[in-house]
Specification:
By secondary structure, the chain is of the alpha/beta class. It contains 13 helices and 15 strands. Helix 1 (5-14) runs antiparallel to helix 8, helix 2 runs parallel beside helix 8 and helix 5 packs parallel to helix 6 (136-146).
């Protein structure tokens, strides 16, 4: 927390704006537009990032029996809203540089679905996973060629950039998330970034039960109760004061881990492929090659758990999830390999130097027991940069 959140929450109570909508919602939307470099009236604050994806699909005309191409290596919230519309996800594997949607496989999927179904997919959902920008120019170029709209899932990527442009500003729509573990939080919540003011206006309409402009309650379309409350938006306004600090802290954590583990055999990181990519390093993720490291991802996870340090495997790909087992999948098993070997390290902005060194020490202890150990001398070689 920045310490500013309570000011906006108290203001909501003092003015009796404790219901959905209100001055904090309007202010939070403006703050996000300023941060993303957008014109006014392009961001709509909602109850969740999942709600944002759903309302984007509604406006893109996704209906029963349509198909939507979705990145397989992601959290289920990227894909679930497709099914809300009675449509079917078509999953595309990742490329190994950014771990995000592979443009080559995307083209293959589009052409094959057109050949098999006689129609184009209705939308494409790439994800900027773990805060790493996807190869978004390649993806949008292919999408434009086939005239298929792109819905960016930037839930994990607030503050990340590709070629100096903020993630969440490339597609027809983009979702943001303010869940408790994201770059900033509103306790729960999200936002839909729209290309036009008219799209944002329609989003607000659908998010408030699609009530027609009439003195009585009249509804010509199905609507949803998806608007953010004025209280939660107050938290968000206070969080904007520390967003840049949170980004810097997570990037600093990543740099520290990378420096400390650079000489450990069999451990590699998700890193910016080149200067075009600027991850916010929402989570620092490592890959462990057991044949080189002498231990597995699961060995390390359990060792961390024994030291009261929470880590987590990378996302299990959607095409491996039981609920999506019948959906088409186009891939080279990149995401499966990442899931088998990958681990998310503690990455929060409030980690102390002692916290970070504890994590490194656990890795060292496990590596020292590995066959043919080539671990550097004990002790951290530096402190993270402020």
């Amino acid at each position: 927390m920045s310490g500013q959140e309570q000011k906006y929450i108290q203001e909501a109570f003092d003015t009796n704006w404790v219901v959905p909508l209100g001055p904090n919602v309007d202010g939070f939307e403006r703050d996000l537009e300023d941060f993303l470099g957008l014109e006014r009236g392009r961001v709509v604050a909602l109850s969740a990032g999942t709600a944002a994806i759903h309302l984007a699909l509604v406006q893109l005309g996704v209906t029963r029996d349509d198909e939507v191409i979705c990145q397989s290596f992601t959290f289920s919230a990227s894909a679930n809203p497709i099914t809300y519309q009675g449509a079917r996800p078509v999953f595309v594997d990742s490329e190994p540089e950014t771990w995000n949607m592979d443009p080559v496989l995307l083209r293959k999927a589009i052409e094959d679905r057109m050949a098999k179904t006689g129609k184009k997919p209705k939308a494409i959902i790439p994800v900027h996973l773990y805060g790493m920008p996807a190869k978004i120019h390649e993806i949008t170029s292919i999408a434009n060629e086939y005239q298929i709209p792109v819905l960016e899932d930037a839930a994990e990527a607030l503050g990340a950039e590709y070629k100096g442009q903020k993630c969440g500003t490339f597609g027809e729509f983009a979702c943001l998330s303010f869940n408790g573990n994201k770059m900033i939080t509103t306790s729960g919540g999200g936002a839909l970034v729209c290309r036009t003011a008219e799209e944002a206006k329609r989003t607000k309409f659908f998010a408030t039960q699609a009530r027609d402009n009439a003195p009585h309650y009249q509804h010509s379309k199905i609507g949803y109760n998806y608007r953010m409350s004025n209280i939660c938006a107050g938290i968000g306004r206070g969080q904007m004061y520390v967003l840049e600090d949170h980004i810097k802290a997570r990037c600093s954590n990543h740099a520290f881990y990378k420096e400390q583990l650079k000489d450990f055999p069999g451990i590699s990181f998700l890193v910016n492929p080149n200067s075009d990519f600027q991850s916010n390093h929402w989570l620092t993720c490592i890959i462990i090659e057991p044949s080189v490291a002498g231990f597995t991802r699961e060995d390390l996870r359990l060792k961390m758990e024994g030291a009261n340090i929470e880590t987590r495997p990378l996302w299990k790909p959607m095409h491996l999830q039981p609920v999506f087992k019948e959906c088409p999948y186009y891939g080279d098993n990149v995401s499966e390999g990442l899931f088998d070997k990958g681990l998310c390290l503690p990455s929060g902005p409030l980690l102390t130097q002692e916290d970070l060194e504890r994590v490194i020490d656990v890795v060292r202890q496990l590596a020292l027991k590995a066959p043919g150990c080539r671990v550097p001398p004990s002790g951290c070689t530096g402190r993270r940069q402020k």
